[in-house]
Specification:
alpha+beta, Ribosomal Protein S5, domain 2, Alpha-Beta Plaits, de novo design (two linked rop proteins), six-stranded mixed sheet, four-stranded antiparallel sheet, 14 strands, about 40% helix, about 20% strand, binds alpha-D-galactopyranose
Length: about 475
């Protein structure tokens, strides 16, 4: 993983110094102090494709979480946050760290520490030889806004814990290690957010492929501006959003299995497994196969799906819902939307491939069209937009954006808009007048809507003695 100071700007170094002062006042002035910084991300295109093992095109943003840490001799994580809204926590490091109740912010740090412990346990670093850490967090990625504040926290905490224990990993291995950290808190997320946070590069978008994880930086044309606007509708993944998200994961997994069986492919779990079997494919043909092998909707009790797949229902349940404490509970009153979800994921994958080429060659208008089409597909087929997100997208387009779409999981959170740099101020102004001026809350506009720049991925530094 990166251990370079280049990615840190003066403001971030200042933040780290302030945190270090607090940490030294707890652990003593002589302790070695490490600072890990990890950015949030905005996804340009490739939404709800990562957990199907299909590509995405995010940027790491210039807003980050910083964790400053020092070793302690208590073999525990003593965690606090500069923002008093997030209460201090303390937990022992052990082979299996029990999560706090759902919704507790410190679960993201537990997920990080557990991820490091699991990864290094298989490489001969026993947990009982690992040191505990006193950690202080300063998060500046807005929470629940679809900008991956949770990945920024998980990644920075994992890196800080590794630094304390003198453990190193390159970026790809680190991103693979933390990819499943959201599973710890019960969301079956893919690995996009963590990979973008770790492997992002300044002035570049990151084309990310999964299984195996690979990244390719794509330069963002100099005349392009990226605007992010928060609907202020909370997309908190610990509540109903999680249930909706996990439901989508199940719908896609069942579709993959039906396609796999129809096409006589082995070991298909996710849609990416289907596509990897073909040198050339297109969404239309695959959708036709799906349509002729299953109804568009299937019962959420999985009976019909099991019959189509010629499997026992309980085996299918264990496979797609998981086992143990984080087994997905489906609301059985609504059918699973197999065809529409698949139509989104496959067409979105085609759009990602086109978007990479469009961006590389500076064809911003084409990139914008693909983003618009992505939003339509997310709203109609994936059903994860909201009236507020649709309104923001419309405002951005009316203001002159070339394209706009929801970004992240949706169900609230933010939109991303692409425009020519020369029109950015006009788009922002339009959003202010048409969307934010009518909101009742008193949050500063600048915190919700801004031109963001692609920043560098995560890195760790050791801070000099006081
Ligand atoms: C969330 C998840 C990601 C990804 C997006 C949707 O941000 O954490 O893994 O699935 O939703 O694209």
């Amino acid at each position: 993983m990166n251990s370079t100071a280049e990615a840190w700007n003066d403001r971030e170094l200042q933040r780290a110094a302030t945190l270090a002062k607090h940490v030294r006042s707890i652990v003593g002035a002589d302790s070695r102090i490490f600072a890990a910084r990890a950015p949030g991300r905005v996804n340009l295109i490739g939404e709800h494709t990562d957990y199907s093992g299909l590509p995405v095109l995010p940027i790491a943003i210039d807003r980050s979480t910083i964790v400053v840490a020092a070793a302690n001799s208590d073999r525990e994580i003593a965690l606090s946050n500069l923002d008093p809204a997030w209460p201090s926590r303390r937990f022992p490091i052990s082979k299996n760290i029990e999560p706090y109740p759902t919704g507790d912010w410190a679960n993201y740090v537990k997920a990080a520490v557990q991820g490091v412990i699991d990864h290094f346990a298989t490489r001969g670093h026993a947990v009982d030889r690992m040191l505990g850490a006193t950690m202080l967090v300063d998060g500046r990625v807005p929470p629940a806004a679809g900008l991956s504040s949770s990945a920024a926290l998980t990644v920075s905490a994992a890196m800080a814990f590794m630094a304390i224990n003198n453990l190193q990993l390159d970026g790809i291995d680190a991103a693979t290690m933390v990819a499943r950290s959201e599973w710890y808190v019960g969301t079956r997320a893919g690995g996009m957010d963590q990979a973008a946070s770790i492997l992002g590069r300044r002035d570049h978008a990151t084309f990310i492929e999964f299984e195996p994880l690979r990244v390719y930086p794509v330069p963002i044309p100099a005349d392009a501006a990226i605007i992010v606007a928060d609907s202020r509708q909370i997309a908190d993944k610990s509540g109903t959003v999680r249930a909706e998200y996990n439901r989508r994961v199940v719908e896609c997994a069942i579709a993959a299995r039906i396609l796999g069986r129809a096409l006589k492919l082995d070991n298909v779990r996710i849609l990416g497994d289907v596509i990897r079997n073909f040198e050339r494919w297109n969404s239309r043909d695959l959708l036709r196969v799906l349509e002729s092998n299953a109804p568009a909707r299937l019962g959420a009790d999985l009976n019909e799906a099991a019959a189509i797949l010629d499997e026992s229902r309980s085996a299918l349940e264990n496979d797609v819902l998981g086992v143990g404490a984080n087994r997905i509970a489906l609301d059985s009153n609504r059918p699973l939307e197999i065809l529409r979800r698949t139509r989104h994921v496959l067409s979105e994958t085609e759009r990602v491939m086109l978007a990479v080429e469009a961006l590389k060659s500076g064809r911003l208008r084409e990139m914008g069209d693909l983003m618009n089409e992505s939003h339509r597909s997310l709203a109609e087929d994936f059903e994860c937009s909201t009236a507020q997100l649709d309104r923001l997208v419309e405002c951005a387009r009316r203001g002159g954006a070339l394209g706009a779409r929801l970004t992240g999981a949706g169900f609230g959170g933010s939109i991303v808009a692409l425009c020519e740099s020369s029109t950015a101020a006009r788009v922002v102004d339009r959003l202010r007048q048409e969307y934010y001026a009518n909101l009742a809350d008193s949050l500063p506009f600048e915190e919700s809507c801004a031109v963001l720049h692609a920043g560098d991925g995560a890195s760790t530094i050791e801070l000099a003695a006081a």
